[in-house]
# Entry
Amino acid sequence: MSAVPARSDDLAALTAEVVACRKCPRLVAWRELVAEEKVARYRDEAYWGRPVPGFGDPAARILLVGLAPAAHGGNRTGRVFTGDASGDFLFVAMHAVGLANQPTGRRLDDGLAFRDAYIAATVRCAPPANKPTPDERARCQPYLERELALLAEVRVLVALGAIAWESCFRVIAAVTGDEARPRPRFGHGTEARTGGYTIVGSYHPSQQNTFTGKLTQPMLRDVLSRARVLAGIGTPGRTAS
# Structure
C-alpha cells in the first residue's frame, strides 16, 4: 500500500473521532440548539449539528487553518467553510490559484476537491458569537496536532486570522518540539518559519473583512500564491475538474 492511501485511512479514522467529540459542553449545547432551531432560510434542511472535520487532499503541501465552523455554514453542511459567505470568498480564491477544482462549495456532495491543500479549524464546533473560549481551543488543539502529523507533505500553514496564527505556532510546537520565541505578530502576508514549517498570515475571509475591503480577492490570492511557492508547488494555475 502506498503512503498516501495509508494517510487517507488514518485521516478517516481521525475524522470519525472528531465527529463524535463531546468534550466541550457549552459548544455541544450550542451547536445542537442551532441545528434544532435553524434559521428561516434553511428551515427545510437537516443540519449537521456535530463537530466539523478537516477536508482536502491527503497529500497536501498547504494546510489552511481557520477559526471555527459558522453556525449556519459548516454546522449546517458538515464541511469546513461550506455554505457561508466566508467559504464562498475563500473557494473563489483557491480556485483562481489552482488549489480547488471549482470556485464554489455549498454542500457535501457538490464535487468540490482540493489539490495540494487541506483545510481545518482551530475549533471544530460552532461557538456562540463565533468566540470559543481559551479552554475550548485547548481541548480541540490535539485534533489539529494529529492532522498536521498525518499530513506528512505539508510545508506551509496559512493562518486565516489572528487566532489561527497563534494556533499554528502552538500546534507546530506540540508536533515538533520547536517553539518560536518570540512569536511574530500576526499580519496579513506576514511569514514566519518554525519547526520546519512556514506560517503565512491572512486576514480571515469573514464578511466583516471582505465587505469593508480589509481583505480583497487580490490580497487573498497573493497569500495563497505565495503559499504555493513556499510549498514548492510552482506557478499557480487552475486544477483540472
User: Anything to note?
Assistant: The mean pLDDT is 94. Residues 3-19 form the longest helix (17 residues). The CA atoms of residues 67 and 122 lie 5 Å apart. The longest strand covers residues 197-202.
